[in-house]
Amino acid sequence: MSTPGAITVWTDTEPSRLCANAETKRPLFIESLQYFFNRNHLLANMSEINVKKLKVNELKDELKKRDLSDKGLKAELMERLQAALDAEAQGADGSEVTKESQDDGNDETAEQEDMGEEEAEGESMEAEDQNGNGDEAAVEGNGHDDEMGEEDGDAGVEADKEVEEEDEENEDDESIDKIDDEDGDADKVISADQKNKKGVKRRREEHGRGYFEFIEECKYSRSKSPLPPLEEEDDEFDDTLVCLDPYNCDLHFKVSRDRYSASSLTMETFAYLWAGGRASYGVNKGKVCFEMKVTEKIPVKHLNYKNIHFHDVNIGWSLADGSLSLGEEEHSYSYLDQGMKSSNAVTEEYGESFDENDVIGCFINFEADDVEISYSKNGKDLGVAFKVSKESLAGKALFPHVMCHNYSVEFNFGQNETPFFPKVEGFTFMQDIPLDERIRGPKGPETKKDCEVLCCF
């Protein structure tokens, strides 16, 4: 029978060829061969394991074979397995020293026994010579056993030399592998520590303070909403001035801060819309006038439709509670830039067309038999455009009203020291009319706190 890790030595089992010396040395020889074989096998397995080249699953398998924990990161598994291999190597070296000391003691005991046996054999040989009955078989057996003993000693020495040579070869192979690895990684210039850290999660204590501050901020801070726009303080505006009324106009009609100029929104699809508004005060008696200058014809290049007119401006008068669409209902009177007039959705030719940089004068006369509305272009009188029955107005006030389509305009209600064109005799600018004779239009909230926001869906 043979056992794993041991060498089976076949010997002659004939009783006549066995002697005391052979029975003593042969078991020691077999045991020493088993030890050296097991030691070489262990060292060969240890030399074959390169912890740095093992994958995670292989590391775990090696740890399980040694009844060690296979939990943790790859770096921890590598460190744990390397420690186990180092411990096994130290254990093998210690057992070798112990075995050698045991072998030395066994050798001394065997030599003493051999000396006693030789003395006994000498006495037996002398007795046999005297009796003339020398046993040649015994002599041959002794000679054969002595040769076996010498062969055993030589085999032990040769086994030690082979182990040392194998160790030296393993060390040389390892040094060669290291040199090859260093040569292969020379271009990458990566150290062994960097190799170990590659793909390995950094330990908690290795992180700096900034890392933990970042984690805390990500964990506990919510997504920040954009800051609301800074609220503008409520302007203290003189309500006695005649100007454009931001409360009585379209939302997409941009009124300037001084409230004497305005324009319609032209961005994106706003360019398709008309926008307009009324003045803050109206009149119902006297002879009153104001001026409007077309300051800019706003380009709308993003609208590429052909045969569609995208620039229009209407100027005239309307009731305070009327529609902001000038000229589309009763008591809404408009002069169009195409040289036409419109009221109650009825359009007729009138005067001349006007365009950018033209100044239109607007006049209303309540002192005639009927209320007369007339216009002028750059100081030129265009005549009466509308006559309105006083009975139909029933004393209602008419307010200056403008409606733009991709135009910007500027007004002179009398706030300018010098008008755009000389004032027509007998007419008064609205700002010069006494406050008690003017009619204030609908007033909006005085402060933003008084406003109410309505959302329509």
Notes on the protein architecture:
Residues 103-129, 147-185 have a biased composition (Acidic residues). It is found in: Nucleus. This is SAP domain-containing protein. Residues 222-418 form the B30.2/SPRY domain. It is a single chain. The chain has 457 residues and is of the alpha+beta class. Among the domains are: 14-88, Transcription Termination Factor Rho, Rna-binding Domain, Chain A, Domain 1 (Orthogonal Bundle); 241-440, Sandwich (Jelly Rolls). The protein is built from 7 helices and 17 strands. The strands form 3 sheets. Strands 2, 3, 6, 11, 12, 13, 15 and 16 form an 8-stranded mixed sheet that branches. It has a 7-stranded antiparallel sheet with strand order 1-4-14-7-8-9-10, with no helix packed on it. A hairpin with a 2-residue loop joins β9 (340-343) and β10 (346-349). α1 packs antiparallel against α3, α1 runs parallel beside α4 (136-184) and α2 (56-65) crosses α3. It is rod-shaped. Residues 1-25, 120-124, 126-157 and 182-190 have low confidence and may be disordered.
